[in-house]
Amino acid sequence: MTGSNYTHSLYLMGCLILTVGLALDMGPNQNMEFTFMLPTGGTECFYQTTTTGDTMEIEYQVIAGSGLDVGFALISPSGQRVVSEFRTSDGIHMVDRTEFGDYRLCFDNSFSKMSEKMVFFKVVINSQDNTSGGQEEWIDFTVTESVADYRIEEIRRTMDSVYRHLEKTRQVQAVLRAFEARDRYLLEDNLWRVSFWSCLNLMVMLGVAVTQTYTLRRLFDNTKRVCT
């Protein structure tokens, strides 16, 4: 596999993961999944808008590229550096109470001058306003429909529990997809190395065998000439 074809395959893989992530994230929540190519010696930053008091979870992983490591920084709207990591392959970070504004997520590959990296990251925001608003709508609906016999609180807790479990399941599936892409990259890279060194060793063995055969034949030819 040539370098251009391999890079093209990585790009198609990234597009596939991005398409699946965007398809899953279409909805009222503020979740985001993204896979991108981080160029050699470059830095890429992304922005996530939050409101005051939200909970934000950030997860990233390097799934392709030499060394499988990048630098990561999370900067708050006020300019404070919340998270700063150097040359790590993955990480999970939680911001309990967010500020109002745009958080900046920066991925750094300036230390690598030879290899680009494929990075997957996911942002999950749990808004307190949206949750409370949904609960009030349920309560208003039940009151207006005069169904006081139903156990509203129990139904609401059950629905919240189901929703949290579904969100956790979807997050785990996204992480497993990233792990699968990373393992596939490592397997393909190791297969190329094994094939190359196996062919090189085979050529060396054949060369040594031919050289030994030629040397032995020359030795016996010289012996016959001396005897005659």
Keywords summarizing the entry:
four-stranded antiparallel sheet; Jelly Rolls; elongated; single chain; 50% helix; alpha+beta; 228 residues
CATH fold-level topology of the domain at 3-127 and 165-188:
Jelly Rolls
Residue windows where pLDDT falls under 50 for at least 5 positions: 1-8, 16-29
Q: H/E order of the elements? A: HEEEEEEEEHH
Computed Rg: 29 Å
Please outline what is shown here:
Helix content is 50%, strand content 28%. The chain is α+β, with helices and mostly antiparallel strands.
Structure commentary:
This protein is α+β, with helices and mostly antiparallel strands and 228 residues long. It has a domain at 3-127 and 165-188: GOLD domain (Jelly Rolls, Sandwich), CATH 2.60.120. It is built from 3 helices and 8 strands. It has helices spanning 3-24, 128-144, 152-227, and strands spanning 32-38, 43-50, 55-64, 70-75, 81-88, 90-95, 101-108, 117-126. A 4-stranded antiparallel sheet has the order 1-8-3-6. A 4-stranded antiparallel sheet has the order 2-7-4-5, with no helix packed on it. The radius of gyration is 29 Å and the shape is elongated. It starts with a helix and ends with a helix. 18% of the residues are buried. Residues 1-8 and 16-29 have low confidence and may be disordered.
